[in-house]
Each structure stands twice: as structure tokens, then as C-alpha cells.
Write a structure and sequence with these properties.
8 strands, alpha+beta, 8-stranded mixed beta sheet, 2,3-Dihydroxybiphenyl 1,2-Dioxygenase, domain 1, about 20% helix, globular, MeMalonyl-CoA_epimerase
Length: about 160
């Protein structure tokens, strides 16, 4: 049975590596505009952000799930070229879930603790993610076959 922490509310709970919540689920798609239209029409999601991330080789969109912006998001990722990681994922696996991302308090701290625990991270230092966030990834072979993204949101001004 899971250990309970009666003095912590769900909103206050942060894991020992600084995980706060599921940030988003990343889905690889061949055509971003078609995918946005599909998720809006079928599931009623709202597109709240789009951008091109040349460093990651993607055009991406964040779709809000539910009524509050603090809830989880669905991230749609379309390749910019046939050489991008997402293009290779699509060639290998077809469209579908590509990653699960967690919001962390500090991506540097979370990365260091995970390395101490024997996890391989894809980047030596965090990179720029969506909307100015800082990100890193845990290698899927070390995370039960799941590509785990760590997201430190951009500072709120």
C-alpha cells in the first residue's frame, strides 16, 4: 500500500527530485495543421501556443486539456526536415505518443539527481524547450521504454 502524507495536499506535493506534475504528453504527427484541427474538432481542445524550434527540428503546438492553463497539455510535434528526431520517430513508429513530460522545479537539480541514480540523460546541459522553458530527457532505455522529458518552465514575469 502506498505511504500517505496527510500533511501534504496534492497541490503541494513535490517528489524528491522536484517533479511537480505531468506537464504534457508529446505526440508525433506528420502534419501539424491537420493534427491541430483534428484535436480541436474531435476532442474540443484549444491550441494555446505554436512555435518553430529549429534546435529540436520541430514545428510544435501546445493544446490545452481542460479549463485551466495549469492543467496538462498535449504537445503536437511535426518534423521540420526528414533528418529531425521526430521524422525518424515517425519513420520507425508512425504517429503517436513520443514522450511524457514532467514539470520540475529545477531541471539542473533533477538531472543531477537522476544521473546519481544511474539514469542517462540525453543532454549534458539543459536546452531550450517550448516557450523558453529549459529541458532535458531521460533515455528511454533507462525509463522503462518511455522517453521522459524534464521541463523547467520559463520564469514568470
Amino acid at each position: 500500500m502506498a505511504e500517505e502524507h496527510p500533511d501534504e495536499t496534492a497541490a503541494d506535493y513535490v517528489t524528491d527530485i522536484g517533479l511537480r506534475r505531468i506537464d504534457h504528453v508529446g505526440v508525433a504527427v506528420a502534419d501539424l495543421d491537420t493534427a491541430i484541427e483534428f484535436y480541436q474538432r474531435v476532442f474540443g481542445m484549444r491550441c494555446v501556443h505554436t512555435e518553430v524550434n529549429a534546435e529540436q527540428g520541430v514545428r510544435e503546438a501546445m493544446l490545452q486539456v481542460g479549463p485551466t492553463p495549469d492543467g496538462g497539455h498535449l504537445q503536437l510535434l511535426a518534423p521540420l526536415s526528414s533528418e529531425s528526431t521526430i521524422a525518424k520517430f515517425l519513420d520507425r513508429s508512425g504517429p503517436g505518443v513520443q514522450q511524457v513530460a514532467y514539470t520540475v522545479v529545477d531541471v539542473d537539480v533533477a538531472s543531477a539527481v537522476l544521473r546519481e541514480r544511474g539514469m542517462r540523460l540525453l543532454f549534458d546541459t539543459p536546452r531550450r524547450g517550448t516557450a523558453g522553458s529549459r529541458i532535458n530527457f531521460v533515455h528511454p532505455k533507462d525509463a522503462g521504454g518511455v522517453l521522459v522529458e524534464l521541463v523547467e518552465p520559463a520564469a514568470q514575469h
